[in-house]
Amino acid sequence: MASLRVTCVVAVIYMIVAMSAHAPMATPSSSISCGTVAKYISPCYSYLSSGGTPSSSCCSGVKSISNEDKTTADVQATCNCLKYLAGQTSVNANYAASLPSECKVYVPYKISNSTDCDKYVEINVFIS
Length: 128
Prior knowledge:
59% helix; globular; Hydrophobic Seed Protein; mainly alpha; Bifunc_inhib/LTP/seed_store; signal
């Protein structure tokens, strides 16, 4: 019985280490984590795989991501996370790229698994 518990603990630790090795980390000075981005974007998976019209909860998530992107490090961390998620799931590239405009949210990069997130070094602030 004790050996089964040890085996389970080792398996869980191995899974955590393996998952963290592949997931993008937030940059040291960013305030948004990939887990937060994934949570916000999760209502969009139906749209991202099948198209149609993004739900209001999807667009609320996209707006929340945009609102949390306060610094260059935040933008780059979010970009890298979305890039990672786009490469790991069955996302249609065209739907991913059009998501911000469908939700009427400005995002300074294309949501794609081929985006070079390091080149986004400025944040444009628009005053209404």
